Amino acid sequence: MREFVLHVHRAVINFIQGFVLTEIVLIIGFVNTANRSSKMKMLKTAAFGLALVAGPAFADGHATGDAVAGENVFSKCKACHSIVDADGEAIVKGGRNGPNLYGLYTRQAGGEEDFGRKYGKSLVEAGENGLTWDEASFVSYVADPREFLREILDDKKARSKMSFKLGDEKDAKDVWAYLVSVGPETKTN
Ligand code: HEC
Predict the structure, then answer these.
(1) pLDDT of residue 72
(2) How far is CA 7 from the centre of its chain?
(3) For residue 151, what are the domain limits?
(4) Same domain flag for 177 and 101
(5) Residue 13, SS3?
(6) Same structural domain for residues 22 and 90?
(7) pTM for this predicted structure
(8) Looking at the domain assignment, is residue 102 inside a domain?
């Protein structure tokens, strides 16, 4: 069942991303054909449409790992992270040292409201610069949070409040798949 739900979710994401691509193609088409003033008008309209459909595309629940194996890997994260759904129900009871990881793939880095000011400056900055969690960013973050932040912020002084490292890429992909599998979408089923 979980697999099925994941599949449907992925299909939805792909569909949305397809939309964005179509819109870009449309914009390019207009730039090439329309005369100057109508070009501007069309560009504005298209950009607005793009903004509307691009939002949901940032929620990237694409996962290639094994969610069942990932549930075991999560025992390493539990000391500091819980998974508590929107109704406050605990999927995994864990420590409060780190933010709740429920629905991670739907949010920007450093964006869990309850954790709020406990986030480190660098992670919040990365989020404000547009970092959202997907499989790739998640895997490189957990491999070495500090190094990851230093690279994407291009700042050798960037710091991470998460000192734990999960270097094994398969484990990281599996735990990502697990987090996606317990995420918001599965709740409706
Ligand atoms: C020793 C405690 C500790 C452990 C163990 C730990 N984390 Fe963290 N984690 C943190 C803290 C603290 C933060 C906040 C980092 C910051 O603000 O710089 C964090 C942040 C994160 C974030 C960013 C969340 C967001 O809201 O942007 C992710 C993703 C994450 N951890 C995943 C994991 C995973 C997956 C594991 C297990 C493999 C794990 N962590 C293990 C303490 C921990």
Answers:
(1) 98
(2) 17
(3) 67-188
(4) yes
(5) helix
(6) no
(7) 0.75
(8) yes
Q: Mutation test of ligand 1: which of 72, 76, 81 has the most ligand atoms closer than 8 Å to its C-beta?
A: 81
The arithmetic mean of pLDDT across residues 95-101, rounded, is 97
Which of 147, 164, 182 maximizes ligand 1 atoms within 8 Å of its Cβ, making it the mutation to test the pocket? Answer: 164
pLDDT tens digit string along 16-45?
Answer: 555 555 555 455 555 455 555 555 555 555
Closest residue by Cα to atom 6, ligand 1, is 77
CB count within 10 Å of CB 59 equals: 20
Residue 61 pLDDT > 70: yes
- Is ligand 1 within 6 A of the CB of residue 179? no
Residues 6 and 43 in one domain: yes
> In angstroms, what CA-CA distances link 175 with 26, 116, 142, 148, 151?
38, 24, 10, 18, 23
Q: Could you tell me the distance, in angstroms and rounded to a whole number, from the CA of residue 99 to the centre of ligand 1?
A: 7
Q: Where does residue 51 rank: exposed (0-12), middle (13-18), buried (19+ CB within 10 A)?
A: exposed
Local confidence band at 55 (pLDDT 50, 70, 90 cut-offs): very low
Using the 3D structure, point to which of 10, 32, 57 is the last residue of a domain: 57
Shared domain for 53 and 91, answered yes or no, is no
Structurally, the chain folds into a number of domains equal to: 2
Rounded distance from Cα 25 to ligand 1 centre (Å): 38
**Crossing angle of helices 121-128/145-153, nearest 10°?**
50
